[in-house]
Amino acid sequence: MTQAVRHEEMRARNLEVVLGAVSRGGPLTRAALAEVTGLTKSTVSKLVGDLVDAGLLAETGPARAGERGRPGVEVVLSGERVAALGLEINVDYLAARVLDLTGAVRCAARRERDNRGSRPKKVLGELQALATEVLAEAHRLGLEVAGAALAVSGPVGDGVVFSAPNLGWQDVRAADLLRLPVPVELDNEANLAALGELWYGDGERDFLYVSGEVGIGAGLVVNGTLYSGATGLAGELGHVVVTPDGPACRCGGNGCLETYAGQEALLAAGNSPSLPALLAALGRGDRVARDACASAGRALGIALTSAVNLLDLDRIVLGGVFTQLYPWLSGPVSEVLTTRLGGLRGAPPAMSASRLGGDAATLGAAGRVIHRVLADPAPFLTRAQEA
Amino acid sequence: MTQAVRHEEMRARNLEVVLGAVSRGGPLTRAALAEVTGLTKSTVSKLVGDLVDAGLLAETGPARAGERGRPGVEVVLSGERVAALGLEINVDYLAARVLDLTGAVRCAARRERDNRGSRPKKVLGELQALATEVLAEAHRLGLEVAGAALAVSGPVGDGVVFSAPNLGWQDVRAADLLRLPVPVELDNEANLAALGELWYGDGERDFLYVSGEVGIGAGLVVNGTLYSGATGLAGELGHVVVTPDGPACRCGGNGCLETYAGQEALLAAGNSPSLPALLAALGRGDRVARDACASAGRALGIALTSAVNLLDLDRIVLGGVFTQLYPWLSGPVSEVLTTRLGGLRGAPPAMSASRLGGDAATLGAAGRVIHRVLADPAPFLTRAQEA
């Protein structure tokens, strides 16, 4: 390794350290940053100056001519330059949302449409149009969008949607089909929504996020990190076995959770043509609808019992359509968890409905890009210097 | 923080860095260590010298007077001074095993006894006698035993065995009851056996280790690290639900895996009074015994399907009594996994019988102490200097 390369690496690492410290603990003065990071004050001053120039950090308080960099001024993440785009293809809508570095939503768009059994090219084309609009708006706001992440329900990997039961898609190269002027990555909706809850939700660092849709996914967050498994396919809660000889599941098995608590099973049992219809029936106390939710809740309780026994969870967040169905689902779920887990664990895990609801996935998607910028800010400094 | 404290911390960290580099990649020369660690050659020389003096590192090749520390000599972990004690209370035996820093077994003892429904004080008294013998032998070999870890089947925490179904124990303060001249920590047998497989087994870094006993536990190893969950109770595979309305389980639930594939269920279904009797019946092709294994295997396949869907496992190691029963269990397990996981994952995870068998838990227990020494060697240097 040459001296110059080593110096570049050291500088990249120190930039990350300073930016990370401000991100976690800001606002901070340069002196406080030196103490927190163990770097010298002059190194910190240089790094902070470069990060301010690149638009990643900003100084707080009124700016006065000639006073930039004076010791008492605090720095925070800047919301004025770098941003990220979160995208989602949901069964009922397409969504795009731009977050700046501080996590504030700067612009967003959403288009209601029924994506069931849709053609991938058509849907991705519409999403591309929506994303392009939002990117133009971000540009007008002076934001530089560093990248995009797209959330799709179901197992994904290497830019390919292996199976999206909501949409009826199989093996769709979604990341390639979406042409945008920024790099696009693809991830599972439940994983991204779990990250959304982690970064922009209640501040919990350990939980299982459950996403109820046509399929049922889950994102496991352990000590502030997403657990994604050997091949990125962890969290397939929908195929946890509830009854081995239960109804046939599209996965080839029988009696998977999805056959009891997936949206299609729920609507069929609740004798409702759509989720709004089911919610309306529940609202007026319809017996069939309530029984459908209760039995879906008991099945979810069984699958979550297995999950808690394996993963030792102490918090479960119900998202997707389960957020709206929470008042009718949570009782039966809790009952099963209490009966089955009380003996070994004393108390069942805490459970709540997602506070972010349908926004969790796009927030997590944009957040993933933002966290990547924070973890490796050096390229943005180079760009700022070249500009 | 004073300058002196900061210096001590830096030194402790550098000792760990050097020892860790040798542990992972040794033998290494001092020059190679400097390159790997990024420390200066003179710092490395000083640290290596201290670690050699403390008996944690040794130089390879013939020692020649006056030549210690010459540049070409390589250093390795030393097996001559620091060691660790692994203990296990199994349903059929007590075991103690001393490993040196290189992972070599230096002395061991095992006492066959039936620990079913045993009095904790009596069993721990016998284990104490066995451990004392082995510690005396280690002392004769010139080894300094840094600590002990005790493996017990079932959920444990803070030195307490919450429930040991093998033994019929409830809330036993095992770590306190065992009086030894070294610190004793307590952990779950499946977790420690999983670590034994990780450190002294096939070299895999991602797998689920399943321990079949009266209860059925599991240890999940992810990227070389044990996943232990929010409260250290992860891996309760025995209470993953196989059939919601199945036989009553001692946990208060119904149809848990344990009620189908736990040792008692297996022996009852196989019409055998003991595991050796079951193995003998299997060996002579007894139909009832084989059917018992096949249906336990199918139940295990169901529970593992749920585990794979949640955790995205690509390797499963069957340990405990499942190691001996592997020839009769593995077919039915594989069949279920292939049917239920083929659709989503293409192929089921690889499966094998534990190669370490009954030794995995004591190896993992001693290994845990050894890894703690390697992660924080500074106290051993202080002791060596005071001696």
From TrEMBL, chains A, B:
Database matches in Pfam families: MarR_2 (PF12802), ROK (PF00480)
InterPro entries in alphabetical order: ATPase_NBD (IPR043129), HTH_MarR-typ (IPR000835), ROK (IPR000600), WH-like_DNA-bd_sf (IPR036388), WH_DNA-bd_sf (IPR036390)
Highest taxon above the source species: Bacteria
CDD domains, per the entry: ASKHA_ATPase_ROK_BsXylR-like
HTH marR-type domain residues: 18-60
Record-linked Gene3D superfamilies: 3.30.420.40, Winged helix-like DNA-binding domain superfamily/Winged helix DNA-binding domain
Residues annotated as transmembrane: none
PANTHER family hit by this protein: BIFUNCTIONAL UDP-N-ACETYLGLUCOSAMINE 2-EPIMERASE_N-ACETYLMANNOSAMINE KINASE (PTHR18964:SF149), ROK (REPRESSOR, ORF, KINASE) FAMILY (PTHR18964)
Family statement drawn from the similarity comment of this UniProt entry: Belongs to the ROK (NagC/XylR) family.
Protein name per its UniProtKB record: ROK family transcriptional regulator
